Amino acid sequence: MVSSSRIQCKGAADALGYCHPVRRWWVGDDDDDDDDDGDGDGDGDDEGKEGVAVNASGVDKSHACELVAISPYPTAEATWPSSAFLLGSDLKLKPKSKPDVEPCKQTTHFQMLHFEGSLDWVFLPVLSTSASLVSTKPLFSPMSSLTPQVDSGESLPPPPPPLTFSTSLFRQISPALYLQRHLLHSPPTRPNGRSPSQCRDFTLTTNSLSHAHGSAVVRAGDTAVVCGIRGEVLTIAPGDDPSRFESYHSSPTSATHACGSRGAGGASWGGLIVTNVELSTGCSKKYPLGPPGGLAQTLSDQLHELVNVTKLVSLDSLRIYDREDYSDVTPNAKIKGYWSLYIDVLCISLDGNILDAAWYAIVAALKSSRLPLASWNQTEERVFCDSSLYHPLSLRRSLPFTTTFALISLPHSDDNGGGTTVLLNDPDSYEEDEACEFLTILSTTDFEIVEGELSRSPLAGLRTRVEKIEKRGGCKIGLRQIESCTHQATSKAARYIQSLMKEQLTPI
Amino acid sequence: MEGLRNDGRRWNELRRIHCQLSTSSTNADGSSYIEQGFTKVLCNVTGPAEPSSRQKVKQDSATVSCEVYFAAFSGTDRIKRGRNDKKVQELQTAIQKTFSSIILTHLFSRSEITISVHILSQDGGTLAACINAATLALIDAGIPLKDYVCACTAGQSTSIFDNEGASPDPWLDVNYLEESDIPSLTVATVGDSEKIVALNMENKVRIEKLEAMIAVGISGCAKVRAIMDKEVRRHGKQKLEAQGE
């Protein structure tokens, strides 16, 4: 049977929602085995199999676009039956085998449609969507001039009326244009109702997992990640050189430089801290179940690099010394082992900006981690962990946080006089799909807790600085935009710090 | 304390069960979360949807497929369980077979129903929690089922006689410590009936003990069902009220 039918349409496509008729079209499906061939009509089969392209006069090729692909399976997003909209005149719409069936009631009828006459019309299924639109007011006029006409439209006047769509349909079939229209609006509002500089609210819960040494759950909008941290003791064999771990951690190089030490056990590769991101968990329909894809691997590496570059965890809290009691380290104490940290990030639900959420979860989980006190036992020649005493990991004093922006380039228009780029703070997946690139800013916040100060003016004692900016090329943005981004990044970092401290202050 | 297990329960007591429906409504058609003691499981259900591959297309019924993920931090040791891990595959098969017989698959020909289970924390009774979570998620997705499938574990202390000379009672709903110590089984029943749809035991046990263990397991399933049913009704009521406004 048909797996998906595709309606393609060429010509004047930038007028989706505006006033050009669609001039050229074909209907076809991607599937070959057509079970309904028994009706025996030759050209019907051809239409079903290959799709028929029909030329109409006045096609402007520069406006080509693909309209929509339809799945015949009733899912939450697209619900059949749909109705057809016909524009223009001279149309004969004739279902082939079942003349009295209303066209397009079911997907299978796509194959049976037969068209004759001139082609100044467009045939579109209406996708009724369950996604609600958060926009405060409709920016686009709903169906005003287009009415469903299932009968042959011979009585329609020759000049085709302007084609408009409902907002939800427009959102689905032309996301780029939909986003642009929102952003060109004054004041610019994103489809999700936020302003470009506004980020989503987030919540943080730490130490909710019992088996992990530290854990955090972060929710930002519909993105939710769980981060768990487990420490494992890595004993140094007599011949081993501990400087391998030390040198790597203290040099701000990328993970690739550490490959030389690969092979001496899992933890030694890339230092003592191993990060792993699991995305293929059914968290989003875009990432199918299966082995980790490109994004998950990139993210794992990116986060690993961030941990190492920022020197987030102080190495001293990972060292296990040769001492019997837990007194202060004497200068001649020998390092007998290390704690290696396994950081696992599990994405439960993905709606854009996974990097920020994952990084924040990692920082919060590290901050809440408690490792058992470990010491070297001389007689047994092994590292022993205390069963009841724990110590927190010591992190660097000022915690770094990432802020990601999606760059959307807007085309030339009358209002701004030329193509510009808009930066969207904390993009969701709809915006991420349309973004030409991303800008990530790593900023650090210093805070001094003064007693009672926190409640009065939480951000007063904060000092922020930018540690890293990553923009990999793609769009041009001005200096001023970067400057405003850094301001947004610092204020977001301050909010992160604030929520982290609030979480830490509450008793577990 | 006399007659109490190491976590303070009596022989026929369940651990605390907390369950939730529609936990991640954006990316799945149905979702649920269940905590049985410290065992925490999250389940997403997608479908009925177009099958991901041609092989999964059945002309007369829906295909049920299941994916199980162990979070690396879920157990007491950090074991990364890959997709081809035996334990993972065993769980997947058990869940898939169980639900293929319970879902009214003939209503959705040529489509696929995917159950993905995430084990966030394991503390005994992992399979039972997975089955319970999957039932809730399928209910949330609105997929017609014959009835609830509820699962529970039961264990049997290996000593033949207890202090008073009587044979000891089986233990209901074993935790991780008990599970690693004594033989235990997982039993899943359909609805209120005492019909067993899944039964799994991996240890040796004396044959005369088996019936008592299964009986205790079935009684646990009934208790689990009551808790799940309560939550489903509460959630449904809440949803209806929200719609009515």
TrEMBL record, chain A:
Q: Where is this region: Disordered?
A: 27-52
InterPro entries associated with the record: ExoRNase_PH_dom1, Exosome_comp_Rrp42_subfam, PNPase/RNase_PH_dom_sf, Ribosomal_Su5_D2-typ_SF
UniProt lists compositionally biased (Acidic residues) regions at 28-48
Compartment annotation: Cytoplasm; Nucleus, Nucleolus
Gene Ontology CC terms, in alphabetical order: cytoplasmic exosome (RNase complex); nuclear exosome (RNase complex); nucleolus
Which biological processes are named by the entry's GO terms? exonucleolytic trimming to generate mature 3'-end of 5.8S rRNA from tricistronic rRNA transcript (SSU-rRNA, 5.8S rRNA, LSU-rRNA); nuclear mRNA surveillance; nuclear polyadenylation-dependent rRNA catabolic process; rRNA catabolic process; TRAMP-dependent tRNA surveillance pathway; U1 snRNA 3'-end processing; U4 snRNA 3'-end processing; U5 snRNA 3'-end processing
Where's it mainly located?
cytoplasm
GO terms for MF: mRNA 3'-UTR AU-rich region binding
The protein's superkingdom reads: Eukaryota
Concerning SUPFAM superfamilies, the annotation shows: Ribosomal protein S5 domain 2-like (SSF54211)
Start and end residues of each Exoribonuclease phosphorolytic domain: 198-372
The alphabetized UniProt keywords are: Cytoplasm, Exosome, Nucleus, RNA-binding, rRNA processing
The protein's matches in Pfam families, at most eight in alphabetical order, are given as: RNase_PH
Q: Say yes or no: keyword Magnesium present.
A: no
User: What family does the database annotate?
Assistant: Belongs to the RNase PH family.
What name goes with this protein?
Ribosomal RNA-processing protein 43
From TrEMBL, chain B:
Q: Which GO terms describe its biological process?
A: nuclear mRNA surveillance; poly(A)-dependent snoRNA 3'-end processing; rRNA catabolic process; U4 snRNA 3'-end processing
Extract the Pfam families matched here. RNase_PH
SUPFAM superfamilies recorded: Ribonuclease PH domain 2-like (SSF55666), Ribosomal protein S5 domain 2-like (SSF54211)
What GO terms fall under cellular component here?
cytoplasmic exosome (RNase complex); nuclear exosome (RNase complex); nucleolus
Q: Which UniProt keywords apply?
A: Cytoplasm, Exosome
Major subcellular location class: cytoplasm
Give compartment(s): Cytoplasm; Nucleus, Nucleolus
Ranges for domain Exoribonuclease phosphorolytic come to 13-144
Entry's Gene Ontology molecular function annotations: RNA binding
Q: Which Gene3D superfamilies match?
A: GHMP Kinase, N-terminal domain
| Similarity comment text for this entry | Belongs to the RNase PH family.
Assembly notes: Component of the RNA exosome complex. Specifically part of the catalytically inactive RNA exosome core complex (Exo-9) which may associate with the catalytic subunits RRP6 and DIS3 in cytoplasmic- and nuclear-specific RNA exosome complex forms. Exo-9 is formed by a hexameric base ring of RNase PH domain-containing subunits and a cap ring consisting of CSL4, RRP4 and RRP40.
Protein name stated in the entry = Ribosomal RNA-processing protein 41
Species assigned in the record: Orbilia javanica
